[in-house]
Write a structure and sequence with these properties.
416 residues, mainly alpha, Growth Hormone, Chain: A, 82% helix
Length: 416
């Protein structure tokens, strides 16, 4: 065990751990159609499987957050490592709905444990630049999605079309971050150093401002995570390579978070959140109406909108409600993924419903789904999914529209 705190090593290890959570997110999004076909699942069932990762994340955040100060940051990270390994292996050997459900739950718990430990770890090490460091840390989530998306794209182009190959790749960075954290000394959390009691922390977590931000976190996370998890499926018939849309969105997000530190440091966070909600709304509407190359333009607008949501929300709470400590960050992250969990089956159900609505009278869904490529039935099914995906994105745009109102209120409330 080291006797001194190596901030750089701990920060870099945290970034690698976050890359693993992102790889899980990106690859899982590209598996939606593969799972539906291989295991004969509806989009609603796949939505429940995908949503399980978000439920597991929420459970880990809610229970791991309070435990950070009791059992230590290192033990929470150890839980993340173990659950990542178990979840990845179980997914590779999955045989149907329930095995996918359980394995995805393990991965969700692992991802939540990474956030539960690494967010307070970073705010404790960099007390004078919390939002900037959180943005740089969270830049590795979209970076990981880019890596995952490119891995899936590469594997598909060299003939490794079985989704299990892409899943197995995740074991490599998992063992890397496990090694980087091994025997490292961790700092005390900011709450402990500042001398705030557990009573102070709990009281701060049910203050009106905190509850308002928690509500907004559900909506921001639903906009970002819900849409990104389904983007490849929703736009499968709009672009020749829909997974590249996710890579494009995530690449813009990564660049914005990595190099937007000056903006975040000099502009009021309430204005950043308001502008983000407006851009996300515009981007979703545009994606619902465009096709071909213009989809990438619309997706770029959407990406700029959601880029600063997650880290700026966490930074706002850490800076404006410091008494909330690690528990406050855990609740915010957990409730954000709760929003993502709710969004997954909802998006799947909307997609199914809008696709069914677009099918001409007299056609049978099961016949269309299983039609041979190039047949008239396959063309009808592709057109129905195209319409269903576009309509789903238009429905999702309601969420950032609500956020625009919320952040206008927050901005003027904080100015008074």
């Amino acid at each position: 065990m080291e006797t001194t705190i190596n901030k750089t090593r701990l920060f870099n290890a945290s970034c690698v751990a976050l890359v693993v959570t992102a790889l899980a997110f990106a690859t899982r999004g590209s598996f939606v159609e593969a799972w539906a076909t291989e295991f004969d699942l509806t989009h609603t069932q796949v939505g429940w499987i995908v949503g399980t990762a978000f439920w597991g994340f929420t459970l880990a955040m809610v229970f791991g957050g309070p435990l950070v100060d009791i059992i230590g940051l290192g033990r929470i990270i150890a839980i993340a490592f173990i659950c990542h390994v178990i979840g990845i292996v179980l997914t590779i050997i999955a045989t149907g709905f329930w095995t996918l459900f359980i394995s995805t739950l393990f991965i969700g718990v692992a991802n939540g444990s990474v956030e539960a430990a690494c967010n307070p770890l970073i705010t404790s090490m960099y007390t004078d630049e919390k939002t900037r460091r959180l943005n740089r840390f969270h830049a590795w989530f979209p970076t990981g999605i880019v890596i995952g998306g490119l891995v899936v794209y590469l594997f598909n182009n060299i003939g490794l079309t079985d989704w299990r190959y892409a899943m197995a790749i995740m074991l490599l960075p998992t063992f890397v971050y496990g090694f980087m954290f091994l025997n490292k000394k961790f700092p005390q959390t900011e709450r402990v150093v500042a001398g705030f009691s557990y009573k102070d922390m709990l009281k701060a977590c049910y203050s009106p401002l905190f509850l308002f931000m928690a509500f907004c976190m559900i909506l921001t996370a639903s906009t970002e995570l819900g849409t990104n998890q389904w983007i490849a499926a929703l736009l499968a018939n709009v672009s020749d390579n829909p997974i590249l849309l996710l890579v494009w969105i995530s690449g813009i997000m990564a660049a914005a978070r990595q190099f937007g530190g000056t903006l975040v440091h000099n502009v009021r966070s309430t204005l950043i959140l308001l502008a983000s909600a407006a851009l996300a709304f515009i981007g979703l509407i545009l994606m619902g109406y465009t096709s071909g190359a213009m989809v990438f333009v619309a997706a770029g607008v959407f990406a700029l909108g959601i880029a600063f949501f997650w880290p700026t929300m966490l930074g706002f709470v850490s800076e404006n409600i410091p008494q909330s400590g690690a528990l406050g960050l855990a609740i915010m992250g957990g409730i954000g993924f709760l929003g993502g969990a709710i969004a997954q089956p909802a998006l799947g159900a909307i997609f199914d419903a809008r696709t069914a609505t677009a099918i001409p009278d007299g056609q049978i869904i099961d016949v269309l789904k299983n039609a041979a490529a190039g047949s008239q039935e396959a063309a009808i099914w592709a057109q129905a999914q195209l319409s269903g995906g576009a309509d789903t994105l238009k429905y999702v745009s309601i969420v950032p529209a609500i956020l625009i109102i919320c952040f206008i209120y927050l901005h003027f409330k904080k100015r008074t």
